[in-house]
Specification:
The complex is a heterodimer. By secondary structure, chain A is mainly beta. Chain A is 7% helix and 35% strand. Chain A has one domain (14-139). In chain A, the strands form 2 sheets. Chain A has a 5-stranded antiparallel β-sheet, with helices on one face. Chain A has a 3-stranded antiparallel β-sheet with strand order 2-1-3. In chain B, the strands form 2 sheets. In chain B, strands 3-2-4-7-1-8-11-10-9 form a 9-stranded mixed β-sheet, with helices on both faces. A two-stranded antiparallel ribbon of chain B has the order 5-6. In chain B, α8 packs across α12 and α8 (189-203) packs across α13. The chains are: A mainly beta, B alpha/beta.
C-alpha cells in the first residue's frame, strides 16, 4: 500500500483541498439561490450563476452505492484488503466519489448514514494533505446535530487505506 | 392525418439513408493480432465495406471517424484520412462518444445525407494496434492507458475527484450501478449471468466471435472471479483487436447496391454526466430519453422490434437498457431475462452475434458489432443465426460508464 498522491489543486478547487487539511469540509453554494455545488466549478450547474461562496458543512450523508474493487484499480490501492469504492450523497444533496474506510464489507448497507473521515495523503509536491473518505456513522452520532464537521478520525493514523 | 403526413410532422430523420455495406475485422487477441497503422486500417476497412456494398472509392464523399486515440494524428484527422484515401469530402466529422461512437456515426451520416450534403458516408473505427516505432517502448501504451478513460490533465475534475479514490476505468463504475440497482430492486446473479450465457449460445453460431466454439453455463459465469461486486469476470467484455466500418448511402445509391438496404429511421442521443455518480439517480440511464426519441422518430415501439442489439459492455448495461428503452418495466429486467429465451432461436432475440461479451470488444469499434449484426439480420446475411423475420432492429450504444448513450432504429427497405 502506498500513500495516495493528489494532483495539484486549481485556483477554483484550492479552498476545498485546504479545508480538508484543516479537517473541514467546505462546499461551494450559489449566492442567489443557495444551490450546493460539487465538484468545485466556476458556475452553478443548476442555475448558471457565477457568484459562488464557500461554506463549511458537516459532511454527514448517506451511502448511494459501493463496490469492492477486488482487482486493485491502481497499484496504490493494492493492500491486504480490497479498497471499497463508494458514492455518497451529502445532506446538502451533492454526490461525491469516495472510499469507505473502517468498515467490514458485511456491515455496509446502501442507504446507511455515513460521516467523513479525513485520511492523510500527499499533495503533488509531497507535502501533507487529506483525502475525504467516509465511514458508517455510529448510532450516537446519528442523532447528534452538529454544526461542526464530525471529526471522525481514522483508526489508522498512518493514513493507509484499509 | 395520413401516415405520410404524420411522418413529415415528426422531427428528425425521414428514414431515407441506408446502411449498404459493412466490414469488420475478426476479433483477435492483442498479442497475436496484426499491427497496422490506423490510416491503413481505415483504407482497408473502407475498401472492404465499399466492395461489400458494390460501390467505388470515388462514390465516397462523407466521413465519420473516431478521433480519440487515432494513432497518426491528434488533430486534423479527417483531412489526413481524405488525403490518404484519395477522396474529396463534403462532410467530415470526428465522433468522440466512446462505445456510443458507432451509433453516433451512423445517425450523423444519415442526417448529413438527408440534408443533401453528401451521398455516401464512410463510418469507420480502426481498433488494431499500430506498429511500434523503432526503439519504441512496447509498455508505453499500457502505461498511458493505466487510467482507462479518465483524464489526468491538470484541471480535469476526474483527476482531482475520482482518481485519488480509485474511481477509474469502467469495472468499478458499472459495479457501483449494479450494486445500487440490486439495493433498489433486488438482484439475481443467475439472471444477470443468463444474459451472458444466452448470448454465448448465439455466438456458437457465429464463426467470427472470439468465443466461438466455447459453450458457457450460468454456473461457469458465477464461478469466475468477482472483479468489482457484483460483477464477475465473465460478465465483463474482453478487449480485443479489431476494427469496423459501415457505408451509409443516399437512397438512389442504395438502390444499386448488392444487399437489402437498411434504412436509418430513428435516432436519439443523450449525455449529461461523465461519472454516473453525479446523475440524480445512477440507475436511470441516458439510454431512456435517447431511445424514446428514436422510437418516436421512427414511429414504432419496443414491441415492434424483431431484434434488440443492445450495447453489452457488462451484463448490467443490458439489464438497464432493457428497462430504460422500454422493453420491460422499471425493476423488471431480471425477471424479463429469466422468462425469455434471448438466443437467435428464442422469443426475444438479443445480440444474436453473441454480443460483445462473446464476440469480443474491439475498443471503440465494439459498438459496430451491434450495428453490423442488426444490418446483417435485416439484410438476411446472418447465416446460421439468421432470424426468420427481421425487418426492424433496435441498436444501442454506450460510452464511458453510461456516460454517453445513443439509439438507432433500423428498418429493411
Amino acid at each position: 500500500m502506498h500513500a495516495i498522491r493528489l494532483p495539484p489543486a486549481t485556483a477554483i478547487s484550492a479552498p476545498f483541498w485546504s479545508g480538508l487539511c484543516e479537517r473541514r469540509l467546505r462546499l461551494q453554494r450559489c449566492s442567489d439561490r443557495g444551490h450546493w455545488v460539487f465538484y468545485p466549478r466556476r458556475h452553478c450547474p443548476r442555475c448558471a450563476a457565477t457568484a459562488l461562496d464557500w461554506h463549511e458543512v458537516s459532511g454527514q450523508g448517506r451511502l448511494l452505492s459501493y463496490t469492492i474493487a477486488r482487482v486493485p484499480p491502481l497499484p496504490e490501492f493494492t493492500g491486504p484488503e480490497p479498497v471499497v469504492l463508494a458514492v455518497v450523497e451529502l445532506d446538502e444533496g451533492v454526490h461525491l466519489n469516495t472510499n469507505l474506510v473502517d468498515v467490514a464489507p458485511e456491515a455496509i448497507a446502501i442507504g446507511m448514514r455515513v460521516a467523513p473521515v479525513f485520511v492523510p495523503a500527499l499533495d503533488h509536491a509531497g507535502s501533507a494533505a487529506m483525502r475525504l473518505c467516509f465511514a458508517a456513522r455510529a448510532e450516537t452520532q446519528c442523532v447528534r446535530k452538529t454544526a461542526r464537521p464530525a471529526r471522525v478520525v481514522s483508526a489508522d493514523p498512518g493514513g493507509q487505506l484499509r | 392525418m395520413s401516415a405520410a403526413a404524420a411522418a413529415l410532422a415528426r422531427p428528425g430523420l425521414r428514414g431515407n439513408a441506408a446502411i449498404v455495406g459493412r466490414a469488420q475485422y475478426r476479433p483477435e487477441r492483442y498479442a497475436t493480432a496484426p499491427r497496422m497503422f490506423h490510416l491503413e486500417q481505415v483504407a482497408d476497412l473502407a475498401g472492404l465495406a465499399l466492395r461489400d456494398a458494390g460501390l467505388e472509392l470515388q462514390d465516397l464523399d462523407g466521413l465519420c471517424i473516431g478521433g480519440a486515440y487515432f494513432h497518426e494524428a491528434a488533430a486534423f484527422v479527417p483531412a489526413m484520412v481524405a488525403e490518404y484515401l484519395g477522396v474529396g469530402l463534403h462532410f467530415a466529422e470526428v465522433v468522440d462518444l466512446g462505445g456510443a461512437g458507432a451509433v453516433g456515426m451512423v445517425w450523423r451520416a444519415a442526417a448529413a445525407i438527408e440534408l443533401g450534403l453528401c451521398q455516401a458516408v464512410l463510418c469507420v473505427q480502426p481498433a488494431r494496434l499500430a506498429p511500434l516505432a523503432p526503439g519504441e517502448d512496447p509498455q508505453a501504451m499500457a502505461r498511458a492507458m493505466r487510467y482507462g478513460g479518465h483524464s489526468t490533465a491538470f484541471g480535469a475534475p476526474e483527476a482531482e475527484f475520482d482518481i485519488p479514490y480509485g474511481h477509474i476505468g469502467q469495472n468499478t463504475g458499472y459495479g457501483l450501478i449494479a450494486q445500487r440497482y440490486g439495493a433498489l430492486y433486488g438482484y439475481d446473479p443467475r439472471a444477470a449471468a443468463k444474459v451472458v450465457v444466452d448470448q454465448r449460445s448465439s455466438a456458437l453460431a457465429n464463426p467470427e466471435a472470439i468465443f466461438h466454439g466455447q459453450p458457457l453455463t450460468i454456473e461457469e459465469v458465477l464461478a469466475s472471479r468477482v472483479v468489482a461486486d457484483p460483477l464477475h469476470l465473465l460478465e465483463i467484455v474482453m478487449p480485443v483487436a479489431g476494427g469496423a466500418a459501415v457505408i451509409v448511402a443516399a437512397p438512389e445509391l442504395a438502390r444499386r447496391c448488392h444487399h437489402r438496404p437498411v434504412f436509418v429511421t430513428g435516432c436519439g442521443e443523450q449525455l449529461a454526466h461523465k461519472s454516473p455518480s453525479y446523475a440524480p439517480e445512477m440507475t436511470t440511464t441516458p439510454i431512456g430519453p435517447a431511445s424514446a426519441r428514436a422510437f418516436a422518430m421512427a414511429g414504432c415501439t419496443p414491441g415492434d422490434v424483431h431484434l434488440a442489439a443492445i450495447y453489452d459492455c457488462y451484463s448490467i448495461t443490458v439489464l438497464l437498457t432493457l428497462e430504460d428503452a422500454g422493453f420491460c418495466g422499471r425493476g423488471e429486467a431480471l425477471r424479463f431475462v429469466r422468462e425469455h429465451d434471448l438466443t437467435f432461436r428464442g422469443d426475444f432475440p438479443l445480440n444474436t452475434h453473441g454480443g460483445q461479451l462473446s464476440f469480443g470488444q474491439a475498443g471503440a469499434a465494439g459498438g459496430f458489432s451491434q450495428v453490423i449484426e442488426a444490418a446483417d439480420q435485416i439484410a438476411g446475411r446472418a447465416g446460421e443465426r439468421q432470424l426468420a423475420r427481421c425487418d426492424l432492429a433496435y441498436v444501442s450504444g454506450t460510452g464511458g460508464v453510461m456516460s454517453e448513450q445513443g439509439a438507432l432504429l433500423l428498418r429493411g427497405g
